[in-house]
Amino acid sequence: MTRDEVLAEFRAAGALLEGHFILSSGLRSGVFLQKARVFSEPERTERLCKALAAKVRAELGDAPTVIVSPATGGIVPGYEMARQMGLKGLYVERENGEFTLRRGFELTKDDKVLVVEDIVSTGLSSRECIEAINKTGATVIAEACLVDRSGGEADVGVPLIALTEYKVPAYPADQLPPELEAIPAIKPGSRGLA
Questions:
Q1: Among 64, 145, 153, 165, fewest CB within 10 Å belongs to which?
Q2: Are 115 and 129 in contact (CB under 8 A)?
Q3: Could you report the per-residue pLDDT of 108-134, keeping only the tens digit for each?
Q4: Residue ranges for the binding site for orotate?
C-alpha cells in the first residue's frame, strides 16, 4: 500500500482529524489519527494489516514467532497481524503504571517477538513495551506499525517497519503556533486510561 492509499483508508473511516490535539506523548498537534475509527471496521483493518504483514515478511521472512502489542491501541492491529502471519498474538498492559504480561500470557527465551503498534509518534509506548518483553528473556527482533508519525525519527530501540510514514508536526504545550493556540485542546488518546 502506498502512503496515499493508507491515508485514504483513514480518511474514509473518518479517522484523519484536524484540530488541536494532546497526543499520548503530551505533545500537541493539529492532526490526529483516530485509529479506533479504522479498527471499528474489520475489513479496513484487515486490508491495512495484510499489507503490513506482507511488508514485515519481505523484511524479516519467517523470523517472528509471536506478536506482542501494547494495550490498548495495539490490541486490534496486533490481533489482526497475528492472524495474517499465523502467529500467536499477546499484549502487555499497564499495571502500576508499567507494561507487563498478564492474563496468563507468557514468553520464553526462545521467542522472537514482533511488537505491533498502531501509530508511532515518539516511540515512548514502544520502548516501554519492549522493556517489558525484554524482562521475560524473549528477544524483540523488530516493531511494526501502521503509521509512523515521526517520519522515521522515532527511536524504538529495534528496527521499525511502518506501513507508511506520515510526518505531522508536534509541539510542546509552551511552543504552540498561533493557529493551535487559538483552538481548545482535546485529548483523544489512550495513555493514562485505567
A1: 153
A2: yes
A3: 999 999 999 999 988 888 999 999 999
A4: 121, 149
Which residues are known binding-site members for 5-phospho-alpha-D-ribose 1-diphosphate?
117-125
Question: Phi and psi at residue 86, in whole multiples of 5°?
Answer: 70, 35
Regions of the chain with pLDDT less than 70: 189-194
Place of cell 520502548: 127
CA nearest to 80, candidates 140, 145, 134, 131? 145
- Grid cell of 28 as nine digits: 500537541
Q: What is the pLDDT of residues 76-100, one digit of tens each?
A: 999 999 999 999 999 999 999 899 9
Which residues fall in the annotated binding site? 117-125, 149
| 161 Cβ contact list (under 8 Å, min separation 6) | 52, 55, 56, 59, 60, 142, 143, 144, 145
CA 94 to chain centre: 16
* Domains recognised in the chain with CATH numbers: 3-181 (3.40.50.2020)
Supply the angle between the helices 42-60 and 75-85 in degrees, to the nearest 10: 60
- Cβ atoms 112, 82 nearer than 8 A: no
